[in-house]
Amino acid sequence: MNATRDDFIPPHTLQQLRDFLYRSGSTWSPQEAIAGAVTEWIARQRAAGASIRGYQWKQLFLPEGTDVRMICDGKTHYAKVIGDKLIFRQRPTSPRGMTLAIAGDGRNAWRDLWLLLPDERYWINAARLRAQQNQQLDKLPASPADALTSAAKAMSQALHAAVVLIDHVDHQSTTVMERRLPKNRREYDLLEDIH
Hints:
By secondary structure, this protein is of the alpha+beta class. Among the domains are: 11-47; 54-139. It has helices spanning 11-23, 30-47, 95-103, 109-112, 126-139, 144-180; strands spanning 54-57, 60-63, 67-72, 75-82, 85-88, 91-93, 114-116, 124-125. A hairpin with a 2-residue loop joins β4 (75-82) and β5 (85-88). The relative contact order is 0.07.
């Protein structure tokens, strides 16, 4: 593999990789990370038995191994995603259940819980992670059906504008013609027909 070429990777993906390597403090170059990722992916595909496990929290997926933290009254409380369950105090719970057990009612789990995803170095607030995920989803290209719907809507608007323009031109031309008819002309403006 030519280690200096990375133009086969979409620029946005390459930038995400560079940002991740910088944030995580990795000494790997993007090319080394790509080679390692491909090697690991091949090994995982060969193993092929295990499915991706984790906890689905509304629209946010927390992969297995994610640590969950909440600080309340100066105490830090931890939970962990094991398999497809969020385990807090050796019992499966939900993020809302965790906040209720720690602080009682009136707390917002999205705001109060912090997450440490596998292979990350820094904790991130759950609400912020959800917002980042939503931004990434908004950047995804529209599906072909969405593109066709948008095109049909634009064509419909253009057709409507053309019809309005034709009606306007028709009205203007009719008005000009009516002004030239004899009933609308003064007698001295009429020319005699000389044959």
